[in-house]
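To whoever is covering the structure queue this week,

Two jobs came back overnight. Logging them here so there's a record in the thread.

Job A:
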Amino acid sequence: MPADWICEDCEQENPGHEVECIACTAPRPAASPYAGYKVARVVSVEAIPKTKLRALVVEVEEGTTVTIVTNARVDAGETRHIVVATIGSIVRIDGEEVEVKKATVGGRRSEGMLVDAPMLGWKGGAAGAAVFLPESYPIGSEPPPSRP
C-alpha cells in the first residue's frame, strides 16, 4: 500500500491510496525522481579483507547512520558529502529500474547503495563512481537536479 501523504495546499494528511486530497481535492503531488536518495556524510571506511570492497558507515540523517558495502573508491577522511540510495528507493541501472533492498555483500550487511551520476540523470560522470558534493549540501537532503 502506498505511504500516506500530506497535501501541499491545506496540509491535510491523506491515506496512501487517495489520488487527491480528502479535504480540498488538490491532486497528490508527483513523487520525486530522487525519492529515498540522500546526501550523506562518510563517517568511516573499512576495507573488507580478501575483496575489493569497502564497508562505509554513512550518516544519512542527523544522528542516523547506515552501513553500505561498495566497490566504489571512497577513502577514509573524505571531507565531501556523497549521495546514497536508501532502502526502498528506486535506482536506474543499465536502463532498468531496481528497488534498493537490504543485502549481504562480501559477508557484510549493506543497507543502501552509493549513487553515480548516470543514476541521477546528470551529464558527465562515470557509471559506478560515487557522486561527491560540497559540504554545503545538508545531510539528509535530496541531491540537486544537476551537477553543482
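Job B:
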Amino acid sequence: MMRRRTTLASCTALVAALALGTTACGGGPVTAAGDGDKLLSGQTVTVAGVWSGTEQKNFQKVLDAFTEKTGAKTQFVSTGDNVSTVVGSKIEGGNAFDVVMVPQVGVLQQFAEQGWLKPLSKPTQQSVDANYASVWKDYGSVDGTLYGLYFKAAHKSTVWYSPDALDQAGVEPPKTYDEMLEAGQTVSDSGLAAFSVAGQDGWTLTDWFENIYLSQAGPEKYDQLAAHEIKWTDPTVVKALTTLGELFKDKELIAGGQKEALNTDFPGSVEKVFGPEPEAGMVYEGDFVAGVAKDQFGKKIGEDANFFFFPAVDGGEAPVVSGGDAAVVLKDGKNQKAAMAFLEYLASPEAAAVWAEAGGFLSPNKKLDVASYGDDVTRATAKSLVSAGDSVRFDMSDQAPAAFGGTKGTGEWKLLQDFLRDPSDPKATAAELEDAAAKAYQD
C-alpha cells in the first residue's frame, strides 16, 4: 500500500510545480511560468465528486482557473452519494478517474487499503505541511502516507437562528449548552418552537451527538470512540446521549415534537426557521445552512439569518466539528502528471480563493486571506475553523465504516432516529450502537 515514487515521478512533480509557481524544494516560491508556457496543454484531468448544482458550478470555476494557468483541460463527473461504488466500477472497467474528491475519511481509508491511491507529490506534501494544521494531514493519511488533500471543509459547530425570533423572545445568543436550552424555552414561551430538527436525515442527528460528545468528553475520548478503541457503552457515551435526550424528549423545544422531526429532512428544517411561515427560532447544522437560507428563502446572511457557535457543554471546551472533501489521485488514472499538478494547485491559497469568492465554501488552508470570503458571517466561520488548529475534529460518523456511520436506514443513523423517537433509555441505545459498531468495524 505504501508506494515509492520513481525519480521520473519526482521530476514530473517538479515540472508541475514550476508551472504552478509552487514551492518545489522547500525554499521560496518558484517563479511562475509565463502565460504562453502551458506545460500541460493537450492533457485532460477527469475529476469526480459528490457535488451538483451550485457547488458543482462553483467548483467548475476552480477547474477553469487551473486550465487557464496550465493549459490542461478538465472534466468533472458528479457521482452522487455513492462515491465508492462509482469509483470502483470505473476502476474495474479500466476507465478510472484521475482525481476523486472524497467526502469521508472512512472512504479515503478504504480506497488506500484497496491499493487504489497514489501518495501525493512532494510539492503538495510541502504545501500541506506549511499551510494546514497537522490534523488535516492526519485525516488525509493512511499508515503514515499522505494520500488526501483537504480542499473544501465544513464547520459543523454552528447554530443558526432568526434574529427576529430571538429579539421577540428577548434572548441573546447563548454561551453554554444549558443557556441554549434556557433560551430555547424562552423562545418557545414566546410562541415559536425553539429548534427545528431534521430527524428524517440520520446524519444530522449524528452531528448533534458529536458536538455534545466532543465538548463533554473531550478530544481524546472523541478520537478513541471514532476509532472504536472504546465501546459505545462507555459511560461518556451514555452521558452524551442523556444530555441529547433532554432536548429530544422536550416537545416544547422541538418544532412539531418528535414525530414531526422524524418527518423533516435537512432543507425542511431550515425552512421551518427561515421559510415564509416560521415554526422555530433556531436550527442546528453546519455553515452550509447559510446557503439554503440565502438561495432558497432569500435571507440576507448576517441580518435575516445569523448564527452562534455550538456552545460548550458541562464546562468543556466549545466544540469544533468539521467535515470536508479530500482530493486523491487514483493510480489507475490515465493522466498522472496532470492529476498531481492539479492537486498541487488545489493546495495553494490561490485555488481556495476562487471558490471562496464564489461563496458556499470554507478552506482549511490557513494561508488563504479571509478577505477572500464574501461576507462577515463566512469570514467568522472560516476564522473559527482555522484558529481551532489541531483541536478540530472530523465528523465521527464520516470516520466510521459506512455500514455504521453513513448508511440510510441502518447503523448509527437509524439508531439515533430511534433514540429521537424514544429517548427514555440512553443505556439501551448505547448498547445497540455498540452492537452495530462492533459488527461494522469487524467487517
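Note for Job B: Residues 164-320+407-442 form a domain with the D-Maltodextrin-Binding Protein; domain 2 fold (CATH 3.40.190.10).

Please reply-all if you pick these up so we don't duplicate work.
Q.
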